[in-house]
Amino acid sequence: MNHLLFVCSQNRLRSPTAEHVFSAYRSVECMSAGTNNDAEVALSGELVEWADIIFVMEKAHRNKLSSKFKRHLAGKRVICLDIPDDYEYMQEELVQLLKTRVSRHVPDLAAGGLAVHPADMR
User: Fold this and answer.
1) DSSP characters over 40-77
2) pLDDT of residue 70
3) Across the strands, what pairs with 25?
4) How far apart are CA 82 and CA 69, in angstroms?
5) Where is 22: in which H helix or E strand?
6) What one-character DSSP code corresponds to residue 86?
7) Largest Cα–Cα distance of the chain, in whole Å?
8) How confident is the model at residue 101 (pLDDT cuts 50, 70, 90)?
9) In the chain, what are the domains?
10) pLDDT in tens, 28-83
């Protein structure tokens, strides 16, 4: 089972949306965090170590991750999704963008099926 960590700045809109969406899949476990000190859930070395794949929303998040948690990143895949901070929590356009971009990097995502019915995800 892959552990996916989603990272944005504040952990209020983009990364919690991703965590919510992908937590519905049986083949992965998901968490989310923010790079800012005042994030809802602040990024930590423990979270970085837990993750198999780290998805950052912007290049600035990758830079912060690399500079602050370099020693925790050995063997980790860090993928920038290039999703700007232009969306609300669970906004349909954001959900579709996340599904398209994340699924490219986690091929067994769909094969594992959903743990919950899509209608129950909202």
Assistant:
1) SSB--HHHHHH-SEEEESSHHHHHHHHHHSGGG-TT-E
2) 96
3) 114
4) 20
5) helix 14-22
6) -
7) 40
8) very high
9) 2-106 (3.40.50.2300)
10) 999 999 999 999 999 999 999 999 999 999 999 999 999 999 999 999 999 999 99
